[in-house]
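Researcher: Next sequence.
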Amino acid sequence: MTFYSFIGIAVTSATMIIFGQALWDPVAVLSRLGNPFAVVLAMIALLMATLNVNVAANVVSPANDFSNISPRRISFRTGGLITCAMGIVMQPWKLMADYGSYIFGWLVGYSGFLGPIAGVLICDYFIVRKKVLLVEDLYQCKGRYEYSGGFNWTAVVALAAGAGVAFIGLAVPAVRVLYNYAWFVGFLVSFLVYFALMNRVAPVTQPAG
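Model: Next structure:
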């Protein structure tokens, strides 16, 4: 991910020198190559990369989620179709129309939720449980991880705290930096809140053996 980010920054910076303006859209960059063969070849590669990334990263997971809601009624294929329909309803072309809204509106926005989720997961596995899990209990009712009706409300509170602190920066200009670094802020806050609550409210005892 770091390598791909670097390539994006490097190419955009190079377009400023070569074309006199910063072109962040790869399609716009390819359209200026000049050689028709190179343009066609690059567009095919871009199309294949886009399809592969979208299918693997953006369709498989939500398709499984929709299917798991009601496995008898919603197949994986139907879940995929629902995902595609939702993708169209979200109108991603509007997000891509301006790099500012795409980066600071969309990417930074949902990172404000991803960071807190990662904070809770990493704290729970590495710190609270010290990498010890009872795998069978993960799939059993009345198991060790059912908590309250299947919800660990300590984790929910930590998630809300992390996301809340990150998004304060969106509402209060004086602390805008909290939103600009939403992933890191959300991760740190949720990590600390979850650790404190799990030790104070619901301390975990390590399973025997």
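Model: The radius of gyration is 22 Å. The mean pLDDT is 88.
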